[in-house]
Write a structure and sequence with these properties.
globular; 6-stranded mixed beta sheet; 501 residues; Rossmann fold; 17 strands; 46% helix; oxidoreductase; 6-stranded parallel beta sheet
Length: 501
């Protein structure tokens, strides 16, 4: 018998009035096809398997495509197939490597919801044993699964609106979880929900498990609403009450009212037809901010001063760059877990790539300074850290094996690059740590402050005839990488600048 067909108003809730599109991503053996067929049946929608569509397009099975065209040929066919589904209605099951092309993610996300099905490497190996699919790495099957899972991890997490452990659940239970999500009944991550079996055990031991779950959801909602009231975010509360399917991102800082991130992200979400809203979480402590994030359908946070170090103890995983820098400016949430990254260092590195191997001075010794030092060292620069407090400069320099000194030591230095990382000069501050007479024409001056666009330091550097890089460039390059981590979609610096204009 056909499952329950959900009413068509779900199309409005799910996709802002567009066609209902649900995409399933994940490694081979995570059950995308089985779950997809059940979902399509219950929703009364077409089931679209991209691997099957690729085979039809090529007129041959996938192993033969790999033999004749190689992986590149297969990926090109996959890209064409997913592009053809950009505005499709249905449940889409994708190949395990589809997310390696950010253009695929943009097409799957357009007017749709993306669910990541995950499983432990051992479970995957058991499920794909005996498959005739060709390997992609030349490694043993076990090594290949572990290697590709690690290589694709950020892309999987970024591409997903929700993450579900499919290694311990049968397909019908996974389909139930997804249906709850798209109905707007899920107030928390799918992996925090009790399974049908666990609800049955609760009912047997304590009474009605579903009633307990509903009461818990009401309690969470009351706490959520109270925090939103305290944060002055009643508009976000109203948006979620009207549209529980909405996903949220935010900048977390104190202060953060000056940030351009809400403008940028909301324009990008509209550009890519994503059902997301970006807001501000401004509060005196990071722990309360992260508690609010846990109560909301938050996918990502942009972390700014003074919380880049404070958030680290509250995260489940921190990547190697953020750990080395000692600061997190990007948090990705999926499957009840929070992942920390640092993209600030890329925002410093990219605009200075033409100065590789030069002598650099970093002004400041805080979190932004650590990211700058890390970036400059990656460009093989000789780095000196200068700060008001020489002990702070020494502490940062010792971490990275650099020279250090006090701010007054800058005079007479022979720097090719100066990176300013302190808040001095940020509106309404009109000060500059350096005057035109302190600078030489050959020096490139990069001020990480971006409000105002032309800071007092940038004006002084221009007067001295220096090459200048405004803080907006750091913001542009770090934001491009941050958007990829949070959404899986690659954006160019040019598009970021266009969105900010």
């Amino acid at each position: 018998m056909r499952g329950e067909v959900l009413p068509r108003f779900l199309g409005s809730a799910l996709c802002g009035g567009a066609a209902v599109k649900i995409a399933l991503i994940g490694f081979r053996g995570t059950g995308k096809t089985s779950v997809g067929r059940i979902l399509a049946d219950r929703l009364g929608l077409p089931f679209l398997d991209t691997d099957t569509m690729v085979e039809r397009r090529a007129g041959m099975p996938i192993p033969e495509i790999f033999r004749k065209k190689g992986e590149a040929g297969f990926r090109a066919l996959e890209r064409e197939t997913i592009a053809s589904l950009r505005d499709a209605e249905g449940v889409i099951s994708t190949g395990g490597g589809a997310i390696t092309d950010p253009a695929n993610i943009a097409d799957l996300r357009r007017h749709g919801r993306v669910f990541l099905l995950s499983a432990a490497p051992g479970v995957i190996l058991d499920r794909i044993a005996g498959s005739d699919r060709p390997g992609l790495t030349g490694l043993s099957q076990e090594e290949e699964v572990r290697t590709l899972l690690a290589r694709r991890k950020d892309a999987y997490l970024g591409a997903a609106d929700a993450c579900i452990d499919a290694g311990t659940r049968p397909p019908r239970e996974i389909a139930d979880i997804i249906l709850q999500e798209i109905r707007g009944e899920a107030g928390i991550s799918p992996d925090e929900k009790p399974s049908r079996l666990s609800r049955l055990r609760v009912k047997q031991e304590y009474g009605d498990g579903d009633s307990i779950a509903r009461e818990g959801a009401k309690t969470r909602k009351r706490e959520r609403d109270a925090l939103l009231e305290r944060f002055g975010l009643t508009t976000v509360r109203d948006l979620l009450d009207r549209d529980p399917d909405l996903r949220v991102c935010a900048i977390a800082g104190n202060p953060c009212a000056h940030s351009k991130s809400p403008l940028l992200y909301n324009r990008l979400f509209a550009h890519f037809k994503m059902h997301y809203h970006y807001t501000r979480f401004e509060w005196p402590d990071a722990e309360t901010i992260l508690r609010l994030a846990a109560l909301l359908p938050v996918k990502g946070l942009s972390v700014t001063i003074p919380f880049k170090a404070d958030v680290i103890p509250h995260l489940d995983e921190v990547d190697s760059h953020a750990a080395a820098i000692g600061a997190v400016n990007t948090v990705v949430r999926c499957g009840g877990r929070a992942y920390g990254h640092n993209t600030d260092w890329l925002g410093v590195r990219s605009p200075l790539a033409h100065r590789q191997g030069g002598r650099a001075v970093v002004l400041g010794a805080g979190g932004a300074a650590a990211a700058a030092v890390y970036a400059l060292l990656s460009l093989d620069m000789d780095v000196t850290v200068l700060a008001r407090r020489s002990d702070a400069a020494q502490k940062l320099a010792d971490r990275f094996g650099c020279r250090w000194g006090a701010l007054e030591d800058f005079r007479g230095s022979d720097a090719d690059v100066v990176v300013h990382t302190t808040p001095v000069g940020m509106e309404p501050d009109t000060r500059s740590l350096l005057a035109p007479c302190d600078l030489e024409r050959k020096t490139t001056v990069f001020d990480l402050v971006y409000t105002p666009p032309e800071t007092p330091l940038i004006r002084a550097a221009k007067e001295a005839g220096c090459e200048t890089i405004p803080g907006t460039e750091m913001f542009v390059h770090q934001a491009a990488e941050q958007f990829r981590l949070i959404t899986g979609i690659a954006v160019t610096p040019a598009l970021i600048r266009e969105m900010l204009a």
